[in-house]
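With this grant's support, we have settled on a layout for protein records. An illustrative entry appears below exactly as we store it:
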Amino acid sequence: MQTLTSAARAIGAISPDRHFGKVAAVRGALIEVEGLLGSARIGSQVTIEAADGPVEAEVTGLDRDVAHCLPFSDPRGVASGALAHLAMGQSVLRPSRGWLGRVVDGLGRPIDGKGPLSIGQEACPIKGEPPAAVTRSRVGPRVETGVRALDIFAPLCKGQRLGLFAGSGVGKSTLMSMLTRWTDCDVAVIGLIGERGREVQEFIEDNLGPEGLARSVVVVATSDSPALMRRQAAWTTMAISEHFRDEGKHVLCMMDSVTRFAMAQREIGLANGEPPATKGYTPTVFAELPRLLERAGPGGPGQGSITGIFSVLVDGDDHDEPIADAVRGILDGHIVLSRKIGERGRFPAIDLLKSVSRMLPECHSEEENAVRLAASALLSTYTDMEELVRLGAYKDGSDPAVDRAVRIAPAIEELLKQTKRDRGETKSDFAQLAALMETPE
């Protein structure tokens, strides 16, 4: 009976109208369709008949009688005059508990060879809206991530949105894999946006493992996917997260990376004729970033929360480049990974003095904050004098604070070293740090 009711609801949502146009021109990735005046809307889905099979596309711009469409796949085989069918209605997903343990593409279609996905009863818009600001719950208590440097110096809280800022090859993906496996949550939704295709299976098998995958939904759009599919994958990741949040779950939403979402939006904007602004990024990039990131966070009354961890690939290790600067101003904290620290052999290569969690100091106890602040001050002193010490220009006994920092800082660095098999425990980690800080003069 429930299946019949669901089917009747789906049939009732189908519009009896059918609108058709034809391809007028193909300019690079942009397909111009005529004949949809008055019926095409921004975001409408279009199916174009091509020699190699139907090509799914989306209306991304309108110019009088011409609809500018970008395809979700290779537009090979599309010819001038080809028939284009406009799908009416809003793009939605229907996730369910049966999606856990599955891998899907940016349109929510299974790509793991495990058969069709179960269809949920509630429709979830792909480009949804966050809960109203005045009805949102507050950020919840501290969540253990198992990463000592984070749990002590830049803690993550339930419903918080945290950014991981790093250049290429600094250990960002490894840190995200540790967070995916260890962070306490009910459901994990992981968006791999613009990632290398060869790394997807490694991430699923090695980093998630069977237990991690069983509580996760993985959304994949590799670097060779069209820009529209990469952007859509980010929206789909958030839509699935919102579905489980609305069920009252604590959702861990991880996206790697926001930068590639921004790059995809830049490609789409330039194809539609938008003027390039800072470093070629179009104005819509900076409008879409908060719309995407604000969807994470605490839910409204009776809902769960989405704890978001978003990676930002810093171009040329410039942490003031446009995307990093924009994202840093939206999120509730930022973790900076330093190439210099990684070259010294300390991983995760988190720069503790440049990383910030806006949930401090409330999420730590008074005793924990006292230990954290003392350790931060000591590490700051050591960082200021590190080069002089290495060069032998500093003489022991010149400054008691520096002498103490030189003695204790290496032990703190050793405490913060971790591998993917070495999970931390916050209470024990604070106890070890407190013991180091109590080292006699």
DSSP finds twelve helices and 19 strands in the chain. The longest helix spans residues 366-391.
